[in-house]
């Protein structure tokens, strides 16, 4: 599209008519509103030719400034001095301006400079924040505030406590303070970060200087300048929190700890270093270190990996080096609730007792959000295809599979679920790591909430190929304030294969 057509279309879309009264380039007006000047030149045939308008001038001409929101104040006792605009409120003071609220027992200020001061305790609420503090100065002209002390939530997932605070243009600043997540909040939080010159950009990130990571009263790590992510939709949590060692135990690995850190490598956060670790008494140190690139076409990862089996219950570890992985973005099919996930990988695998060789493969799965059937009941179907190629023994495996899960809540404490899965495996894998246990299986689970902090779950699974009961699992779930402990006893047909699993999972971030 050429510039002449562009100018013509822009002129037609402006909210008021723009025209030239004659060939002299007059300023056009509609009523009392001055419009942007439209220049004209004469073409060779004498016809007027329109040239592009001054967009900056057009923007300034129609820049609308919204009126300032009025301040409403109520109190048990209210004094207003019209001579100098002084105002004072005592007892149940409520100040409101738009979405901002201030609640305290005493306030004073001026309607002239529009500053209001609460020397004592007060509650300060905005559309995104819920804060309390002392020494609050609220500026009703621009909605900014300063606080001697601060405590509360900036955004839904960031708890802050500290001194020397300011809120300017939606950005929080704290001179000295601590940050933690909602479930960890306590007089001494379960885990938290302390720092100086803390700046919080809600829904985006926070920065801090002289950073320290604490678990209760124990300092675990000292760090200088730190930048943590707050964009939960991208599932990129603050890596100092996820680095916290989580205790684990299972019969194959023994006692151990696990954690991970996803450290941004650039300002936008779309390039990151992903580090995971597992330290166990039986299998030692199992690290993973990968560089990840997030794009609109998916996530690419390259590096070294120590990975535990997820296709079976034998806790087999495989080393993958080098390993290149791709994870496609979830593809939604309109508003149907149906979506598709997929991934692909290439690398070299090694496993204890097995030859090292190359592996390549891909996987795709289609499923949907659970479909409601009747009160407290839903069902979900899934289907997928996986294919793998191995250099060891020139092996190849195909795995088309499908399954269904039905869930029913009986009441507020009791629920049950039933499932069926079928893997039509052809070919084989030379590794125990990705061997599928019980390709055809059905089972059920029953869960009951004993107390607000305790839940018990019983699960039973049947191997449809052999007809045997393959698993009886007894699970106790315990609420540990900011963590959840899951303790499972797995009772198999062979007493030698019976085992315990113990995991501690944080509530506010995922691993």
List the helices and strands and how they pair.
Blueprint (H helix, E strand, L loop, with lengths): L2 H11 L15 E2 L2 E2 L5 E3 L5 E3 L4 H7 L10 E3 L2 E5 L4 E12 L2 E11 L4 E11 L3 E11 L4 E11 L4 E10 L2 E10 L10 E11 L3 E11 L2 E6 L2 E4 L9 H4 L3 E5 L3 E11 L6 E10 L3 E12 L2 E11 L8 E11 L3 E2 L5 E14 L2 E15 L2 E4 L2 E14 L5 E14 L4 E10 L2 E2 L12 E12 L2 E10 L5 E12 L2 E9 L7 E8 L5
Antiparallel strand pairs: 1-2, 3-4, 5-7, 6-7, 7-8, 8-9, 9-10, 10-11, 11-12, 12-13, 13-14, 14-15, 15-16, 15-17, 18-19, 18-36, 19-20, 20-21, 21-22, 22-23, 23-25, 24-25, 25-26, 26-28, 27-28, 28-29, 29-30, 29-31, 30-32, 32-33, 33-34, 34-35, 35-36
GO cellular component, one term: transporter complex
Protein name: Organic solvent tolerance protein OstA
Keywords: Signal
Short recap of the structure:
This protein is mainly β and 511 residues long. It contains three helices and 36 strands. It is elongated and about 95 Å long.
Describe the protein in words.
This protein is mostly beta strands. The protein has helices at residues 3-13, 55-61, 239-242, and strands at 29-30, 33-34, 40-42, 48-50, 72-74, 77-81, 86-97, 100-110, 115-125, 129-139, 144-154, 159-168, 171-180, 191-201, 205-215, 218-223, 226-229, 246-250, 254-264, 271-280, 284-295, 298-308, 317-327, 331-332, 338-351, 354-368, 371-374, 377-390, 396-409, 414-423, 426-427, 440-451, 454-463, 469-480, 483-491, 499-506. It has a 16-stranded antiparallel beta barrel. Strands 5, 6, 7, 8, 9, 10, 11, 12, 13, 14, 15, 16 and 17 form a 13-stranded antiparallel sheet that branches. Strand 33 and strand 34 (469-480) form a beta hairpin.
